[in-house]
Design a protein that fits this description.
Number of helices: 8
CATH class: Alpha Beta
CATH topology: Maf protein
CATH architecture: Alpha-Beta Complex
Helix content: 40-55%
Number of strands: 7
Distance between the termini: 9 Å
Strand content: 25-35%
Length: 195
């Protein structure tokens, strides 16, 4: 198995997942302006899956243009609530609004990964998990947010499934690594067969 790649993301969780799966990575964030790309794709009526895949591909391609010959992994996750994309909050007020919109609802978390080489995608995969949030009072939601650090809140949207966020849900269907932003089983399958 090829066991070293470039990770085009500053996500500590994604790096940790790769490390736990014996995939060595060098981190080189792409610094893509995700919001402007999302807005442009939404104007074109792109599905949440297409948005997630396009962002993962863009991130990987940008770095792989600079890192000739090397494999670059890009990743992106989006929350899809009844066809509406929910982005990361810009402040705690918006985080509370996002939690209120998810409150008592079922939503999908879509994670896409892309491996690029020499500026072009050579492999991609998109996975989806379904999460149902408990019905909670505004006070409970505020109490939850008080337990979450700024770094966690702005990096991983409004919940971290591997931490306090698990307590928000009555039902979780899907791969936990997908929910954390990296469907690593499929990445390992690809790298195992890479020639």
């Amino acid at each position: 198995m090829l066991n070293q790649i470039i990770l085009a993301s500053k996500s500590k969780v994604r790096k940790k997942i790769l490390h736990e799966n014996d995939i060595d990575c060098v981190v080189e964030p792409s610094n893509v302006d995700e919001d402007s790309v999302k807005k442009s794709l939404l104007k074109e009526k792109a599905s949440p899956e297409i948005i997630s895949k396009n962002l993962a591909e863009l991130k990987a391609n940008i770095i792989s243009q600079k890192r000739t010959g090397e494999l670059v992994l890009g990743a992106d996750s989006v929350i899809d609530l009844n066809g509406k994309i929910i982005s990361k909050p810009i402040d705690r007020k918006e985080a509370l609004e996002i939690l209120e919109s998810l409150n008592g609802q079922t939503h999908h978390l879509i994670s896409s990964v892309c491996i690029s080489q020499n500026g072009s995608m050579i492999w991609s995969h998109t996975d989806k998990a379904t999460l149902t949030m408990k019905e909670m009072s505004k006070e409970d939601l505020k109490n939850y947010l008080e337990k979450i650090s700024d770094e966690a809140l702005y990096a991983y949207n409004v919940y971290q499934i591997e931490g306090e966020g698990r307590s928000l849900f009555s039902r979780i269907e899907g791969d936990e690594n997908t929910i954390m932003g990296l469907p690593v089983k499929k990445i390992k399958e690809y790298l195992n067969n890479y020639k």
